[in-house]
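Wait, mind explaining this?

_____
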Amino acid sequence: MKIETGQVAVITGGASGIGFALAKALLARGVQIALVDIEAPALTEAAAELSAQQPGGNVAAFTADVSDAATMTALANEVASRFGGVDLLVNNAGVGGLLGPIWDSHPNDWPWVFGVNVFGVVNGLRAFLPGMLARERAGQHAPGHVLNVASLAGLTAPPFLTAYTASKHAVVGLSESLAQELAIVQSRIRVSTVCPGVVRSRIKESGRNRPPALAGASRTPPEMLARIEAAFAAQMQNPMEGDAFAARVLAGIEANEPLILTHPAENAHALARLEGVRAAVARQAGEQQAA
């Protein structure tokens, strides 16, 4: 997809971090932004900052909970009324969950994390893709693009953040399935999944938006939790700045990259997991030959 002036991008989780960085970069390219977030005050502030960067009504703010399907359907109708159509759908909203081993996880961690990280993506696709496909079939615009934000954790398996890791693996898998589905129905809409390492954001504070009905606290013994938190704090040092992240992602979108990686130094972790798959395949081949 070539990013051009006048296109429309929907960005969930757009009031801070990765979403806000992408909004800034796209706005600088002349793209109109439908900025979506669950935090109304932060959203208002972010939209005002973006509007000051690019006056002229190119930014509209929408408060929405991506985990609620009906809300997302209503959002799609609002965006269509405001902008007329969507060229780029960015499913970015995400939460981190609680640290700790899976056996100590709180039962409410799972519906909370999956509700935002997985069903938030599903709801975004269900709400916006039909309109994008209809416009494409009517020849009303150039092929669109879907960007689903996963994580390097979606290609690896880091410990002590299991709900988050499982949710990001789900995002990678559903994105790959979606790309095949669009190809089968002969759509030219492309799908990219970005799997970043550590980027400057507020994901460590995502518990601020945890619904009261899904409240939960860590059940991990304090001494173990302290060691886990110290290890994670060390890994979170020197995060990539949002501007650099956004530049890499926009280049990946324009190149129609199915998988966008942003942290070269971390790629060995993903390759190590693939080596495990290759080793299993080789073992099975050897067993079949022996038989």
Summary: The two ends are 50 Å apart (CA to CA). The longest strand covers residues 32-37.
